[in-house]
Amino acid sequence: MTMSRDEIFQRVQEVLVDALSVDDDEVTAEATLMGDLGAESIDFLDIVFRLEKAFALKVPREELFPAEGLLNDPDLVSNGKLTEKGLNELREKVPHTDLTEFQQNPDINKLADLFTVNAIVNYIDGKVNPA
Amino acid sequence: MGIRFACGRRGGESEMRWIWIDKFVEFESGRRAVAVKNVTLAEEHLHDHFPGFPIMPECLMIEAMAQTAGILVGQAKDFQEKVILAKINKAVFYDFVRPGDSLRIEAQIQTIAPEAAGTSGKILRAEQLIAEIDLMFSHIDQNLAGKKFPEENFVFTGMFASLLRDVVLKEAQVVTPAPEPS
Fold first, then answer.
1. Burial, B130: exposed, middle or buried (Cβ in 10 Å; 0-12, 13-18, 19+)?
2. What is the tens place of the pLDDT at every residue in B78-117?
3. Which one of A106, B13, B100, B146 is CB 3.0 to 4.6 Å from A82, fit for a cystine?
4. Min CA distance, A20 vs chain B (Å)?
5. Cβ contact, residue pair B87, A72, below 8 Å
């Protein structure tokens, strides 16, 4: 099954409208899930469940939202920022996310900004249209 | 009175859990369950909600669904997980419920994962659709970034067993935790 990015975006948009009770015009590609769309931790699971259904895929939560697992490791986080090692782990875990801006100041509170609608679209794109 | 049914207390004292459904009439392990709730004017809140016009509060219909679906989700993992209502995805109500009504609460598991479960459900009075309620439950030991919860399963105590008196579980046993020391 191959899908265009537009089709993927539309389905992701529907998923987020249903999961987060937001309007479809709020769900832009750049919108952050937590900051802009008000997602909380349980919503991430809800989103995973709905994506699995919408795309008939298995979506391991740590694959889509991997940063959660990094935050409790003292090797990877120091003084509220990701260490170089932490950054490397993050890069490995989120190949579908653009980290250029984040790595200037890898404040863990800003990790939330990495969860954008676009990151989900990229992830799904990689799954349904393998290179 | 809240809409959570799993508001456990710490400590070993035996506790009376607030059960808001009367019994299960159908139970298919891991898939679906149907419970019955009979509404009576003996429920004191109906005298205030509202004076001269007693109707069941909608939040208590959500509670009835949370208990029905929550026990269904808990039983799917042999009552080993602490199952907490985490999210109300949908709650739409189509009619008032009055004293004397007998409600049929139908819950279905849509998704179940190690960390959580999603359910969908309907409340019916005879054939009439009264409400549609979709919920999410969290298995809290598998969640919440490693927070520690009490060892004993404060969500599922032996009290729930009586609700299952009329149903036969074919695919799995009903495992009732040993009563806590009083």
1. buried
2. 888 889 999 999 999 999 999 999 999 999 999 999 889 9
3. A106
4. 9
5. no
Q: Measured at the alpha carbon of residue B168, what is the angle toward residues B8 and B109, in degrees to the nearest 5?
A: 55
In this structure, what token pair is assigned to residue A78?
């120091």
How much is the ipTM here?
0.74
Supply the CATH number for residue B77's domain. 3.10.129.10
* Closest CA–CA distance from residue A71 to any residue of chain B (Å): 9
Q: Which residues of B touch A53 (CB under 8 A)?
A: 111
- CA–CA gap between residue A8 and residue A2 (Å, rounded): 10
> pLDDT tens digit string along B32-77?
999 999 999 999 999 999 999 999 999 999 999 999 999 999 999 9
CATH of domain A1-60+115-131: 1.10.1200.10
